[in-house]
Amino acid sequence: MLDADFTVHLNQNFSFSIKQAPPLSGGDINAVFLLTTDQGNFVIKINDAQRFPEMFYLEKLGLESLAQSKSFITPKVLDVGMFETKSYLLLEHIESGKPSVDFDEIFAQNLAKMHQTTSAFGFQKDNYIGSLPQYNTEEASAADFYIKQRLMPQFKMAADRGFAFEDVDLLYKSIPDLIPDEPAALIHGDLWGGNFMVNSDGNPVLIDPATCYAPREMDLAMMRLFGGFNQNIFDKYHEVFPLCEGWKARIKLWQLYYILVHVNLFGGHYYNTANSILKTYI
Q1: How many Cβ atoms from other residues are within 10 Å of residue 178's Cβ?
Q2: What is the pTM of this model?
Q3: Which residue ranges make up each domain of the chain?
Q4: Which of 190, 201, 208, 219 is catalytic?
């Protein structure tokens, strides 16, 4: 439940009166609450400011970038702040609903539009993937970005945690010949089934981004990794914004990054999966 002093702080700073604050699902990193107030409903996410510095400010940047692409609906950020040792992110509350009859087509069209928003590979700031740091220094090519900003940091982190991988340099040498020469696309960056919702109008809403400008196939590979997306979405996307030749052979290459993240978060069988993917591409 919300701390009483924190409740007073919020009431004073936002000129509302909190009536109830039931918890919502927030994963292992954040405590999340629905704020029922006399000014309407809001969502607040809270975490340890020292453990996750700037996490909510960086999430704000990501949500704003997605909103500026005029593709998916995203929750509006109302405030990012601190109270004592806690950071918080105050968001618009979006009522959930059931998917509309044309949900898959809308999702695919929105995803294509988001991916057609381009810039240099990277992002304005480093951010997070889950609770881990995600690096976004600008790179000249998709291959350089994927190797230097995605794979290298995760392989190093894994080694520091005792998970050794052999022949990683051979993987790095093979990647430039595997990745298509496409512009960097605005991607959600962590697009698994838990990071979208359906609003009361039946339309898709993206939440909890790890935003950057990167190869667009990364989003699509993550969508396939843990399920939760109808095949029709992928088919409709390909109609609107066809993928480059050989995309099927690259799915596991992109998934390697997300599997390595899971190695560094959870270890276990993810290590064997990552090793298997590594051997596929050397």
Answers
A1: 14
A2: 0.96
A3: 4-92, 103-280
A4: 190
